[in-house]
Amino acid sequence: MSIVKKQQEKIEIDMLAVLKVLWKRKWLILLSGFAAALLYYWWTVIFVAPAYSTSATLYANNSNTTDVSTSISSAELNTSARLVNTYAAIILSDPVLDQVIEDNGLNETARTLAACISVSAVNNTEVFKISVRYPSSQMAAQIANSIADIAPGKIAEIVDGCSVRLISYAKVPVSISSPDYAAQFRTGFWFGIIVSSVLAFLVALVDTRVKGETDLNEWEYPVLGIIPSFEDAEKTGVYGYGNK
Fold it and tell me: What percent of the residues of the chain are helix, what percent strand, and what percent coil, each to the nearest 5?
């Protein structure tokens, strides 16, 4: 069956024929999908190092008062939330990270360590999290907690009239955060399905062989004669118009 048809001097692709071609090769396509999924999973296990994530939580306030009876206005809360971006820049600066590296005996640069750290506000509030993603679960918690101890003092030195207080330390994660092996398997499977389907379509598209009278009729070519199928004749015992 040809997937390309001639309709009133125009060449069109028969989508139904395309679907039939893909359905005819469904087992090969599925096999390709599973093969790609296993290959992608194997590559992830061998070459992608697992990482652990954990976070410490802090509270940012733009007032350095310690009097609990002093009321805090909504304007101060909004200012504190906006200052989280400022605090993030300070936390990821070289002075803070260099001290973290020294305290934990890390063998890397501040720039490399900064790529493992993110600072984000919690639901647009004045509470923010310092998240660390690292190959070692124990070291991930150590780094996050070290930053949580160092950051409040550094921020107070740079930003006037503000205070940062610790809410909770980071805990040692018990499971990896990345890579997601199930997601990697699914990605490889669908990649294999798509690639094999496209290849099957291209093979059918460039296949110009005439396989039957239907192909000639689709291209509006006249049929001068038909060679009988001797395979069918051997089964039925009838050759042409005569008998065996």
Answer: 50, 20, 30
How is residue 49 annotated by DSSP?
P
Nearest to 83 by CA among 68, 64, 65, 96: 64
The per-residue pLDDT for range 200-229, each reduced to its tens digit, is: 888 877 766 655 556 555 555 555 556 666
What is the C-alpha to C-alpha distance for residues 116 and 53, in angstroms, rounded to an integer? Answer: 9
Tokens of 60: 């940012």
Nearest Cα residue to 162 out of 174, 151, 173 = 151
Spatial separation of the C-alpha atoms in residues 82 and 231, rounded to whole Å: 82
Say how many C-beta atoms besides its own lie within 10 A of residue 233's C-beta: 13
Q: In this structure, are strands 117-121 and 10-13 parallel, antiparallel, or unpaired?
A: unpaired
The answer to whether 169 and 145 have CB atoms below 8 angstroms apart is yes
Q: Is the pTM of this model over 0.70?
A: no
Residues in the chain: 244
Contact 4, 11 (CB under 8 A): yes
Residues 117, 108 contacting (CB under 8 angstroms): no
